[in-house]
Amino acid sequence: LHSHDFGELVVIEEGVGIHATETVEYPLAIGDVFYVTPGDIHGFTNVHSLKMRNLIFDPEAFFAPSPELRELPGFHALFHIEPLVRQGDAFQSKLHLAPRELHRVYELIQSLSNEYEEQKPCFRAMVRSYFTLLVAYISRIYTRVENPISHKMMNVSRLVSYIESNYAAPLTLQDLVNAACMSRSSLMRAFRQYYGLTPMDYVIKRRLKHSEELLLTTDYSVTEIAYNSGFSDSNYFSRQFRRTIGMSPREYRLRVR
């Protein structure tokens, strides 16, 4: 068992084995795809001719410039919720690629690898582009996964994608319940399990993240930023910002910009 300070996207190419965490073990097969978050303790055992393709990367550096990825439910399922579930339950990877899909993934990884190794002009942009294509492709596939075991996880993932696309709009808890297609109690329980906060708290957190970007990249007033981020009251926005960031929006702009 070991851990990394980077993210690790794993694609099983050949053979069989067991993927182990501190709490569970589950079998691997050709076509399995899973993500190991930075700091997660894991390892492999009982391997037989196991061959994997591993992409190691800084998720902050590679996911932050691609906000559209966060509009894909499969992205949230694969890169956030599944690693959390895997730590606590007897869980098996829900993303399993068909041979045609696996071949396409190999092509994207090879193109990315070639760019990285050859380092031609603008190779960093090409590496980032191929990586984004790869993540978008497998996230699309995961979004189409439909089975009883992953039903709750995908409902929450779809809700998070809905929030990512609509956080600046007026949203109520009932709107989120409707978007998740779950009962209010089931949604609250599942969302806390996966994210450690309520759905409305997640909305506020996402609005505050957008407001930070606007404070650093625009000359909008605090009131304009509040409204652009989805807050209908600039005073409430300022209180939430100070409570979360530890300083007022104006102070943040002066210190960080």
Q: Work out the helix count.
A: 11
- Characterize the main sheet: 4 strands, antiparallel
Poorly predicted ranges (pLDDT <50, ≥5 residues)? none
Helix content: 55-70%
User: Rg from C-alpha positions?
Assistant: 20 Å
Secondary-structure element series: EEEEHHHHHHHHHHH
Mean pLDDT, as a whole number? Answer: 91
Structural class: alpha+beta
Shape: globular
**Portion in beta strands:** 15-25%
Total beta strands: 4
Termini Cα gap: 41 Å
Structural summary, described in words:
This protein is an alpha+beta fold and about 260 residues long. It has eleven helices and four strands. The protein has helices at about 60-65, 75-90, 100-120, 125-145, 150-165, 175-180, 185-195, 200-215, 220-230, 235-245, 250-255; strands at about 5-20, 25-30, 35, 40-55.
Features:
257 residues, alpha+beta, 11 helices, 4 strands, 56% helix, globular
Summarize this, please?
The chain has 257 residues and is α+β, with helices and mostly antiparallel strands. The protein has eleven helices and four strands; from the N terminus they run ββββααααααααααα.
Detail the topology: elements first, then pairings:
Elements: E1 7-21, E2 25-28, E3 33-36, E4 42-57, H1 59-63, H2 73-88, H3 99-118, H4 123-143, H5 151-166, H6 173-180, H7 184-195, H8 199-217, H9 222-228, H10 234-245, H11 249-256
Antiparallel strand pairs: 1-2, 1-3, 1-4
Helix pairs in contact: 2-4, 2-5, 3-4, 5-6, 9-10
